[in-house]
Amino acid sequence: MAGMMEFNELDSPMIENGGGLFGPDDDDEDVVSPMGKMVLVSPSSEEFEFLVETIKTRVLDAQGETIYEIGTGEGEKAGLKPDDYQASVATLHSISSSLGLECVLLRERTAQEGTVAEYLLRQKLEPHDFMEVRVAVVGNVDAGKSTLLGVLTHGELDNGRGFARQKLFRHKHEIESVCIGFPQVKNEVVTFIDLAGHERYLKTTVFGMTGHAPDFAMLMIGANAGVIGMTKEHLGLALALNVPVFVVVTKVDMCPPNVMAETLKLLTRILKSPGCRKIPVIVQNKDDVICSATNFTSERMCPVFQVSNVTGENLDLLKMFLNLLSTRVKCDISKPAEFQIDDTFSVPGVGTVVSGTLLQGFIRLNDTLLLGPDALGQFQSIVIKSIHRKRMPVKEVRGGQTASFALKKIKRSTIRKGMVMVSPRLEPKACWEFEGEILVLHHPTTISVRYQAMVHVGSVRQTATILQMTEPHLRTGDKAMVRFRFIKNPEYLKMGMRLVFREGRTKAVGTITNLFPHVSAVAQNTRQQRATKKAQQETKHPLNPQNEPQKPSKRNRRSQKSASDYDAYKENVLQPVSMPNGTTPSTVAPPQPPTSLNISHSFSAGAPPGSSITPPTSSSKS
Question: Which PANTHER family match (predicted)?
């Protein structure tokens, strides 16, 4: 019912009192009050057209569905007589048919003056299209997360020894996400994201909460164990990311009444604490389900279900509640496409496949997008080869939907989690540094400059270093403006994105307020990259302000040193020698290194150059 409560509180007093759609008309007492319960009984053509436009606006504002109540009005006793009730139902069906809406009866009840009913109006989609609601399943280890998902998705109860849980591990793709559909409305699919409950795998849980963009979070608690372990950590993470939470207490069939009462008492105290400020509602019947689903998106109400996977107790109420949920996040499909990647695959015969969530815009077959950023902050052009949604081929996807794309001429090794595929019209820029306003949730000591921890922003998961802070030190409960820098790769970020800053357990949460500096995002081919690298090498030692020559490299310095040594050797050792007959040889060979015999060099007087040297005798002494 995303968006419906805002409409009900601001634009439609009818929902507060359960009545009509028009403003009061005091001038004409004969006309039926537009806010009265008789508004749907035989409306005129003008009233019918206005009803059509009003309901159309409500459905669009509520992301494709809304709940309409018949038989109540402002200042009137609730209930319609049988004839008036049938006429109102017929009018509502006519309006739904003209708008292409599904009209499903949720409940009927008897009031003071007759019958009151509530109908679910949901937009009809194409035969191969569907409305997807993403629910993240969190909770401590052994809370029954996988068992409940096995029961919901396969329709078989558990035997108490893991029968339903085993169904999720038959195929690899079912381990990561499972789906449930509703037969009464064919166009809705609920996707469950089964996250880890152990503290060791908290990074996977945080990535699932940030990267998969869930609409709601289902917090699982074992009735026999209570609120233990990572339960509070997961609850605080969902609240920090502004994800609406509802609670499911499992194993009620094996829990003693006193232990069950103690678990509910502790859970109620936590939900009402200043950190949560929730209103817990124990769901016991269908009226509680409809009331909870109608007011759930206000983020104040927190429904609590008590179910058993063995006996099936209250599972019908949980399924009804899931059926009434609708997409919470509003995505503008008129903006340029922006798709965040949360996983990559290499499929034999297909090639590289990426999966993720389309945040805005449209993506169609054979579209050309920019993929990046890489290690240098660059984006490269890619072409969409095929599109799949829930293992079904489609021709296009809209903002807010999850999908998988097969890419042309791209290797999987060049893609990593956290990259994006965006329209060239966005002119994307990657950044090394960013600034955010953070709130420290828990830290045993102090946080100061040069502190490093893991940062989660959307599907981005990378270690960052604190460069600057507005406060010298941060402790538990402190707020500050902090400047971060990634240590490995630049990332594509946007203003206003939520971030989680953690080391082990969650340390701080916040919002990105500034991005700097931006890295140029012009795609380059191999030749351009080589030219850029060569230019960088040539400018590594630029001229100084006095226009002195560049400092030679180490190899050149070695060559120059050898040349200077040879010149000095040539001047000092290789001296010209005066020879008889006025001849002067240019140089004389240098003396050889000494051996065991000392050789005496002598020339006979008057002997021409080149005459033989007298060999030493045995009596010669040095």
Answer: ELONGATION FACTOR TU-RELATED, GTP-BINDING PROTEIN 1
> Does residue 50 sit in the same domain as residue 100?
yes
Give the C-alpha separation, 311 to 160, whole Å: 10
Helix segments in 449-573, DSSP class H: 526-538, 554-572
SS3 142: coil
Say if residue 169 is in the same domain as residue 49.
no
CA 209 – CA 493 distance, rounded (Å): 17
Residues 421 and 498 in one domain: no
Beta bridge partners, 282, equal 304
Q: What are phi and psi of 194, to 5 degrees?
A: -80, 110
Digit-coded pLDDT (tens) for 41-93: 888 888 889 889 988 888 888 778 888 889 887 767 888 999 999 999 999 99
Is the Cβ–Cβ distance between 93 and 52 less than 8 Å?
no
Higher pLDDT residue, 28 or 534?
Answer: 534
The one-character DSSP state at 189 is E
Task: Specify whether the CB–CB gap between 436 and 464 falls below 8 A.
Answer: no
Q: State the pLDDT confidence band at 599, using cuts at 50, 70 and 90.
A: very low
**CB within 8 Å of 149: residues ≥ 6 apart:** 137, 168, 178, 192, 194
Which of 208-212, 378-382, 576-580 is predicted with the least confidence, judged by mean pLDDT?
A: 576-580
- Torsion, Cα 336 341 342 348, to 10 degrees, reads 130
> pLDDT for 181-228, tens place per residue?
554 455 778 999 989 888 888 888 999 999 998 999 999 999 999 999
If phi over 0 gives left and psi between -120 and 50 gives alpha, with beta otherwise, what is residue 542? beta
- CATH number of the domain where residue 209 is located: 3.40.50.300
Q: Mean pLDDT lowest for which of 171-175, 274-278, 321-325?
A: 171-175
DSSP bridge pairs for 333: none
Answer whether residue 111 is part of any domain: yes
Three-state DSSP string of 6-70? HHHHHCCHHHHHCCCCCCCCCCCCCCCCCCCCCCCCCCCHHHHHHHHHHHHHHHHHCCCEEEEEE
Q: Is residue 507 part of a domain?
A: yes
Token reading at 66: 């809304």
CA angle 146, 149, 153 (to 5 degrees): 145
Question: In sequence order, what are the residues at sequence separation of 6 or more whose Cβ sits closer than 8 angstroms to the Cβ of residue 375?
Answer: 489, 490
pLDDT tens digits for range 524-577: 555 656 666 666 665 554 444 444 445 555 555 555 555 566 566 555 554 554
Which of these, 160, 159, 134, 164, lies nearest to 149 by C-alpha position?
Answer: 164
| Average pLDDT value for residue range 479-504 | 93
Same domain, 306 and 159: yes
Q: Which two tokens stand for residue 348?
A: 């034999």
**Whole-angstrom distance, CA of residue 459 vs CA of residue 356:** 9
**Cα–Cα distance between 127 and 125 in angstroms, integer?**
7
**Do 443 and 402 sit in the same domain of this protein?**
no
Q: Is residue 227 part of a domain?
A: yes
In a domain, 597, yes or no: no
Specify which residues 569 forms β-bridges with.
none
Please tell me the total count of domains within the chain.
4
List residues bridging with 479 in a β-sheet. 439
Do residues 163 and 301 share a domain?
yes
| Domain interval for residue 195 | 131-324
Considering the entire predicted model, what is its pTM? Answer: 0.73
Instruction: Provide the CA 534 distance to its chain's centre, in angstroms.
Output: 37
